Amino acid sequence: MRKICLLAVVLVMVAAVPGTAWERDFAWGRRGKVSLTPTTTAEVFGWRTDLFGDVDVKGLTLGLDGEASFAAKTRLGLTLTHGLSEVNNLVLTYNSFDHTGRIHKAVTFDNRSYQAGANIKIQNNWFDLAWSHNFRFWEHAGTAPRERRGGFIDGLLGIKVCKADLDVAGLEPLTNARAKGTWSGSFPIPYIGVGGGSQLSPNLWVDGHCKFIATTLGGGSVRSSDFDLNAAMRLNPDGKDAQWFAVLGYRSFRVDGASGGDDANLGYRGPLFGFLGRF
Known about the structure:
Blueprint: H1 2-14, E1 25-28, E2 34-37, E3 40-57, E4 60-63, E5 68-70, E6 73-83, E7 88-103, E8 107-109, E9 112-114, E10 119-140, E11 149-171, E12 178-201, E13 204-217, E14 220-234, E15 243-259, E16 262-278
């Protein structure tokens, strides 16, 4: 169970959905009213992140932004959202992520010792399935279809099915022989959150999301917070069928986990960008 809890610490660092894919569309209803409309969206997104924090896991004690160097990395992912009804949506996200760096001091990991200059790699692959439910919707209909406006607040409930690998490779201090330590596994992680958005103009949206995880596994604990803020500009304002958007935003994510004397306080932050189609 201790290994499972430590795995959850690493997984939660990178396994949160970046948003709910601008899933709320607005249409004219009866008597000139604006109403929510179920839609299907597909978003290809990228997240360029810097890694920061510190770890003390399996003998490896390391400050990631001082005692190791990691280059900023950009990885692509895919989010699909399907409207089940006016107030309920189903969201599926797949993403893979890795950070590769170099350790600047002698370390011990997985019962082996390494000279300064050893390589470290954290890699994740995950599926995320979430349900979003609309708690509040407001409208400003205006006097013409292009003047319609709307906003929403959603509750989020989801689970991530993840696989993670942590590798350290380098030279042993005494023999200069090559050595490698690994740690891998998979685990489901539940979460809750809230999201909201507002239509500022016929072709411009803003939205944001906040997600929270707090759980106890095998005598350890994991807590995390995840915040993102985004803007989306419609690229085909005169289109009558599919809608296309360019998305730009920013995301900050932290996790604090501990188990059996091991702990991690880590985070990712950086810009988000993407391309979205609504059908």
